[in-house]
């Protein structure tokens, strides 16, 4: 069998991996084998953390809504129950922004649930 020279194909593949790992520390951005391993690991972390980011933001929003609700003498769960009972369908992201930046509107929403 004749020898196959795949010079530019291999170089292109290695170059692509090394470009993806630019900015990594030490050999992780210089040596192909370690760079390839770190690239695989980085992609795994990225996919895991996309789901984790959604979780973290939801926790942050709930904490902010709870702080706003406590100022009104309610717990988070009581407030959300009142919203559902009154048919107020505002998502947690917007409620958290209202509780943090526009407390007057947030307080009016809470007052509306008392009626």
Q: Please give the count of helices.
A: 5
CATH superfamily descriptor: Ribosomal protein L20, C-terminal domain
Low-confidence parts: none
CATH class category: Mainly Alpha
Question: How many DSSP-defined strands?
Answer: 0
What's the main sheet like? Answer: none
CATH architecture group name? Orthogonal Bundle
Family: Belongs to the bacterial ribosomal protein bL20 family.
Keywords: Chloroplast, Plastid, Ribonucleoprotein, Ribosomal protein, RNA-binding, rRNA-binding
Subcellular location: Plastid, Chloroplast
Organism: Chlorokybus atmophyticus (Soil alga)
Task: Please describe what this structure looks like.
The mean pLDDT is 94. The longest helix has 40 residues, at 32-71. The protein has one domain (7-114): c-terminal domain of poly(a) binding protein. The N and C termini lie far apart (86 Å). With 115 residues, the chain is mainly α. The radius of gyration is 26 Å and the shape is rod-shaped. The protein contains 5 helices and no strands. Keywords: Chloroplast, Plastid, Ribonucleoprotein, Ribosomal protein, RNA-binding, rRNA-binding. It is found in: Plastid, Chloroplast. InterPro entries: Ribosomal_bL20, RIBOSOMAL_L20_CS, Ribosomal_protein_bL20_C.
């Amino acid at each position: 069998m004749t020898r196959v020279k795949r010079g530019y194909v291999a170089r292109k593949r290695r170059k692509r991996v090394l470009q993806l790992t630019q900015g990594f520390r030490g050999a992780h951005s210089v040596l192909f084998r370690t760079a390839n391993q770190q690239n695989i690991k980085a992609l795994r972390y990225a996919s895991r953390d996309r789901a984790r980011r959604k979780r973290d933001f939801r926790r942050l929003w709930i904490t902010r809504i709870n702080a706003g609700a406590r100022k009104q003498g309610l717990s988070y769960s009581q407030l959300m129950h009142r919203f559902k009972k009154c048919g107020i369908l505002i998502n947690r992201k917007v409620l958290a922004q209202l509780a943090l930046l526009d407390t007057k509107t947030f307080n009016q929403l809470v007052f509306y649930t008392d009626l």
